[in-house]
């Protein structure tokens, strides 16, 4: 990366960090682009070099979260022998990252923004996200090995699985982080979602 590219990356990160900090303190709608850039110590025009609107910062944050999911999956999931073990490990990593790196307040901002935005095409439910693809490929692996049920296709089961996981995140937001997201998220995956995914052993 060149010196100019590094500077551009630093400026973009400064704008994002400034925006998220101001969103936490004042709410998304109350914060202006000018306030974001002033707080970041950059020119107002710099904002539009990287973002078209304030909402683009929310989208970028989801992409950052997804980038972590992709790094984790590519480096770690192959060490687990079964699809169930992979899903549990991925869930644990996912919940830990959101709890420790994103945080309850920022997650509220992300969810609130995606809820109030008009239209149906939103980053949080985009099926092209790494999150969706990782879960889908793991479910497909489990179906191929006979570990997971095959009466529903993998895409449908991924949709239901991720919809259920978002319920845990939303509950954590509603409860102001009153429970351990990692413990409850893994328990939900192990005791509830996994039971729905597994192939039936009944005669």
Break the fold down into its secondary structure elements and pairings:
Blueprint: H1 3-26, H2 33-40, H3 44-50, H4 55-76, H5 83-102, H6 104-116, H7 130-144, H8 154-174, H9 181-197
Helix pairs in contact: 1-2, 4-5, 4-6, 5-7, 5-9, 6-8, 7-8, 8-9
Task: Please tell me about this protein's structure.
The protein is mainly alpha-helical. The chain has helices at residues 3-26, 33-40, 44-50, 55-76, 83-102, 104-116, 130-144, 154-174, 181-197. It is elongated and about 60 Å long. The chain has 2 domains: 1-51, Arc Repressor Mutant, subunit A (Orthogonal Bundle); 54-197, Tetracycline Repressor, domain 2.
Integer count of domains: 2
What is the CATH third-level topology name of the largest domain? Answer: Tetracycline Repressor, domain 2
Mean pLDDT across all amino acids: 92
CATH architecture descriptor of the largest domain: Orthogonal Bundle
CATH class of the largest domain: Mainly Alpha
Low-confidence stretches: none
End-to-end distance: 60 Å
Please summarize the sheet with the most strands.
none
Q: Helix- and strand-based class?
A: mainly alpha
Would you count the extended β strands for me? 0
| H/E element order | HHHHHHHHH
CATH homologous superfamily descriptor of the largest domain: Tetracycline Repressor, domain 2
Shape: elongated
Strand content: under 5%
* Continuous helix count: 9
Please bin the fraction of helical residues: over 70%
Gyration radius, rounded: 19 Å
């Amino acid at each position: 990366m060149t010196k100019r590219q590094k500077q551009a990356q630093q400026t973009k990160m400064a704008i994002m960090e400034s925006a998220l900090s101001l969103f936490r303190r004042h709410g998304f709608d109350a914060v202006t682009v000018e306030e974001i850039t002033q707080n970041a110590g950059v020119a107002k025009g710099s904002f539009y070099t990287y973002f078209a609107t304030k909402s683009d910062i929310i989208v970028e944050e989801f992409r950052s979260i997804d980038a972590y999911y992709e790094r984790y999956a590519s480096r770690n999931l192959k060490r687990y022998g079964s699809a169930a073990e992979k899903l549990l490990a991925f869930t644990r990593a996912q919940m830990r990252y959101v709890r420790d790196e994103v945080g309850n307040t920022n997650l509220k901002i992300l969810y609130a923004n995606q809820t109030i935005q008009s239209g149906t095409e939103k980053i949080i439910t985009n099926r092209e996200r790494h999150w969706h693809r990782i879960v889908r490929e793991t479910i497909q692996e489990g179906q191929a090995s006979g570990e997971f049920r095959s009466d529903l296709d993998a895409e449908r089961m991924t949709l239901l699985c991720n919809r259920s996981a978002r319920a845990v995140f939303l509950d954590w937001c509603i409860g102001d982080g009153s429970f351990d997201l990692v413990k409850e998220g893994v328990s939900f995956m192990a005791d509830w979602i996994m039971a729905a995914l597994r192939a039936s052993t009944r005669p």
